[in-house]
Amino acid sequence: MSAPGNGPVLALVGATGAVGGVMIDIINGRESVPWGEIRLIASPRSAGKKLTVRGAELTVLALAPEVFDGVDVAMFDVPDAVSAEWAPIAAARGAIAVDNSGAFRMDPEVPLVVPEVNADAIAVRPKGIIANPNCTTLSMMAALGALHREFGLRELVVASYQAASGAGQEGIDRLHAEIEAVAGKQLGARAGDVREALEAAGLSVEDTPFTAPLAMNVVPWAGSLRDGGWSSEELKVRNESRKILGIPDLKVSATCVRVPVVTTHSLAVHAVFGSEVTVERAHEIFAAQPSIVLVDDPAKGSFPTPSDVVGGDPTYVGRVRQALDFPTALDFFVCGDNLRKGAALNTYEIAEELAVRG
Amino acid sequence: MSAPGNGPVLALVGATGAVGGVMIDIINGRESVPWGEIRLIASPRSAGKKLTVRGAELTVLALAPEVFDGVDVAMFDVPDAVSAEWAPIAAARGAIAVDNSGAFRMDPEVPLVVPEVNADAIAVRPKGIIANPNCTTLSMMAALGALHREFGLRELVVASYQAASGAGQEGIDRLHAEIEAVAGKQLGARAGDVREALEAAGLSVEDTPFTAPLAMNVVPWAGSLRDGGWSSEELKVRNESRKILGIPDLKVSATCVRVPVVTTHSLAVHAVFGSEVTVERAHEIFAAQPSIVLVDDPAKGSFPTPSDVVGGDPTYVGRVRQALDFPTALDFFVCGDNLRKGAALNTYEIAEELAVRG
């Protein structure tokens, strides 16, 4: 598939990064792909590396304007600043850029797309750029989109249980190192004992991607500080949910909390709708959605947990309850792999949707 | 203090258990106590043990009707069934029973008390029994009580981050063993890899207090199954909050989730009030409350986390935000040691309040 053939040309920018690696796994795992050619692109530092994609060894190309010539769809899995500079260049060379960074998500001229929720939005892209949502927002979009179509979503109160890999490979390595530092010690009973154990193991508690110890702890912070004490992550959940679902006045309160889980974000969702909802009907809606796996039989210990669903593509939904004191509200718990559906998979699904639509 | 002297007689039933041990620490840590005598009581199996309380070595007495003779206040830190049988016996012998189990909390003839919220409720106790709330509910009561007095609480949406010690010493030991089993391995990337590591370390994943792996995971379940898919823990949060705050029609939705933290429960709280609220006024209210420590300067990385507050008596509150789309709502994050304020401390504070009131 990597040799020029019939079909559009796909480029992957950021092919050697953490999400880029998951992207290649996803492309390799597809039964078939619509692409006539696949180009791998990375910073000049990583150019020349060889990676195997669907059986063919591909040489990573250095990021430059010319590499986008002839490209139909260019997926960007790179930091915000790189996307901000290079996605418009790719678009100017004729590619449709599908960007997984935060650079364009709230740009009114850039659609923000989750294919099973608002696939049609990809058709209107005046800048030639389509954005992929933040991983925390994405984790609940398939479930909320399906419920919204039937009941009309009005309000959302969300608390997150976010994985370390949301902070990249650095976050994954840090959590593993912290768990090693606290293991075998009877910690967690006295204020500061975890912090001391990390320092004793040579882990700086100042210079960490999580601001505070994450092992044997939870950290109510993700992103950077915005007005009113809100974190950037919490505002993304609000603003991106509104844009994807097409509900500009959706009421949203989110509290984003990091937990000592390597990969897979979870969310406790309280969703208020315009009409009455039942657990039975919600179960039917979830069961009918191909990208959702319903795991909801607490009598048998059946509910989604991150360590049981990591590595998979679907959104896992469970603990569905009709809110006792809010007749039009549902409470539920959702888990989604933040590196797959939360990042690479959704970006790739947008790219395939573009290929299908021609 | 343990020899008969001037002052009322205090009994501690369950003196040799996990919460009982914390209770003795609390009694030993008080600057002064009002008691003329303290009696330690446990099951016949633990009777005869010697424990030091405020410098005096006390022999644990076997639970029997006669040990309550002459007792003014009897604190119960025992399982529900033991409380259900023995608190009425203590009351019949003339003691006021302060019970930390779930046996009497929703009994309309038993007050459910958090001293800084509803101390006056202890005066009306037709059964001679006063109940101490569930630890998850307790973690947010000081904060919500203070806000309710000024703004009038109407609705509550809560997601919990509950510690392993909520499941007792067995829960603490299990989490330590699980962390040891996963440490030093690159786990958390593939579904089931944590489960396999636990089994390889000889830890049954069927026979666990948490239903699912807790290390490198979060588990959206605590308690037992009730109607409509709700857990008993979630219904306690709803029903006990209503009773303590004296708001019978308070609207509550709670999702209770266990996290790999040894001790200290955290809660993400979305609270809707009857009148407009500001972060500034909420900060003033929290700062004026002796039992609350306000930790809320995210620009400096300042917010409460369990591992930084465990072992302390206060409730720690941070991440206070005016909800952007709900003009009368606040979002905040609260941490409280579930073995201290969440259990032993509040029970002891009720006992001292009784001693003060005579």
Automatic annotation (TrEMBL), chains A, B:
One of its GO terms (molecular function) is aspartate-semialdehyde dehydrogenase activity. It catalyses: L-aspartate 4-semialdehyde + phosphate + NADP(+) = 4-phospho-L-aspartate + NADPH + H(+). NADP(+) binds at T16, G17, A18, V19, R45, S46, S165, G166, N338. Phosphate binds at R105. Pfam families: Semialdhyde_dh, Semialdhyde_dhC. Residues 9-125 form the Semialdehyde dehydrogenase NAD-binding domain. Substrate binds at Q162, R258. SMART domains: Semialdhyde_dh. GO terms for biological process: 'de novo' L-methionine biosynthetic process; diaminopimelate biosynthetic process; isoleucine biosynthetic process; lysine biosynthetic process via diaminopimelate; threonine biosynthetic process. The active site is at C135, H265. Signal peptide: none annotated. PANTHER family: ASPARTATE-SEMIALDEHYDE DEHYDROGENASE (PTHR46278:SF2), DEHYDROGENASE, PUTATIVE-RELATED (PTHR46278). Catalyzes the NADPH-dependent formation of L-aspartate-semialdehyde (L-ASA) by the reductive dephosphorylation of L-aspartyl-4-phosphate. This is Aspartate-semialdehyde dehydrogenase. It comes from Solihabitans fulvus. The lineage of its organism: Bacteria, Bacillati, Actinomycetota, Actinomycetes, Pseudonocardiales. The gene is asd.
